[in-house]
Amino acid sequence: MAFSGQTPGLGLPQWIGTDKLEREDFNGSFLILDKAIDGKQATLVSGTNIRTVNGTTLLGSGNITVGGGSGTSPVERVIGFTADCHVRLTPGENHSEAIQVEINRVAGAGGGAGSRGKLILRAGRYIIDSPINMHTIVMEGEGNSTILDFTNLTGNQSVFQDNYVGEGVAIFKNMSLESETDYPTSSTGKIRSVRRTLIIDNVNIRGGGSGIQIGQTTQSPHNNVITNCTIDVPTNGISISANNEINNNIIANNKINCTNVPINIKGNDNLITGNICGEASGSYSAAGIICIGNNNRISDNLLIWCSSTTAIGNIALGSATATNPYSYNNTVSGNVVLRGNTGISLNRAERNTIVGNSLYNGNQHAIYLNFSSQNTIVGNYCESYNGTGIYSTNSVMLTICSNTVLYSATNIDVSGGNTHMISGNNVFAYSYDSTQYSIRIGAGVTDSFVTGNNIIGKAVTNSSGNTTNTILNNKHLNTAQGW
After folding, report:
1. Distance from C-alpha of 305 to C-alpha of 419, rounded to nearest angstrom
2. What is d(CA 107, CA 104) in angstroms, rounded to the nearest whole number?
3. Which residues contact 323 (CB under 8 A, 6 or more apart)?
4. DSSP H/E element including 101
5. DSSP letter, residue 208
6. Which of 162, 178, 212 is a domain's end point?
7. Distance (Å) of CA 115 to CA 25, 77, 198
8. What is the pLDDT of residues 101-135, one digit of tens each?
9. Considering 191, 212, 233, which residue would you say is the last residue of a domain?
10. pTM (2 decimals)?
11. Which domain holds residue 121?
12. 3-state secondary structure 42-83
């Protein structure tokens, strides 16, 4: 049968409308169609018959920037033990090298400047046998289901360290760092940052050595944020310290159990709030929160068994070994301290405010001031200390007002210094006829006022020779005469 030509590309007949079609005419056309379909490429499916680049599909419009390009889009890599990972690992093997390769890949994207992306660790146990250099990336896990196990990490090493890289930000989120051994053996910290800023949220740290260490000698990375972590280690919990101050840090809502110092910070304008610090075994930690610096706020923390000496309290401002006053304008408020030796200590710390704290059942002093002048002690509750409720030595111009101090061997004791104001306090002994001091003004105190206090127990004692002090309008309970 005649036809009027062929379709371009396929060679199918173009029939004339008046022609009569026969079966054999169709057979030839179907054969041509079958051959054309067989040669056609299958539909593209990302990750199946077309590869991805750094986890990004090649399908669609627009440009994709790969490592070394000039783009700024962050790169995200996923590794783990499941099929949906870009890099699939084998359980039981060491994973340090694979993790480091992927960290380097993410950090190197777009030139490596700043925080360049994220490495996601799927749920599982990752075995770490060598330290990991974080560069500037985010590392994120799936809560406590992502465990970095460095049981095989030996020697005096940290799990994460950044000793030899430039400044930047490293983020650790939703993961566990665990070790059944005593490595690292010193206080270097399982997370250690020398140069960069850390953001650490919801990380569980357990095992040997210390928890988190930020700063070293002249390296002072500022603006660190450590929140919602659980740290259970034998030495130090969180240490932020260098020769220079490390400033503008936030340490909030962490639970820290250790035998040395849960939180140790040297710097200015820091916030330490909502933390629970203690030694679960009931033995003493060396201290709870040590803060050396200015304009810091320590508020609403709970400290248990965190003072092993008189001079260093559960909360300690300043340094007993400093030659000059060092810590200024700090606020310590709303904290609860249970047991230990001293509750709150100030050593060579001036112009600080200690307000609204509750301190119970210690072996030495609830609030202790040594060479610490112009401080305001107001609205605190101090109960049952074997030494003194509020004790000051070698300090001047103290304001001690509106505190409740009771059931201590001596409730308020001020020795040395001048120009103190002690007023409006409730000072209660166990009984009205107690021979223990309620308020004692020691030898050498001058030009001070003790006025408007409510006292159960022994009346105000002003040591002989203190002729320039004013003792006025204090109320003393007597069972026969009342107040």
Report:
1. 34
2. 5
3. none
4. helix 96-108
5. S
6. 212
7. 67, 14, 11
8. 998 888 877 544 445 688 999 999 998 888 788 77
9. 212
10. 0.80
11. 76-212
12. CCCCECCCECCECCECCCCCCCCCCCCCCCCCCEEEEEECCC
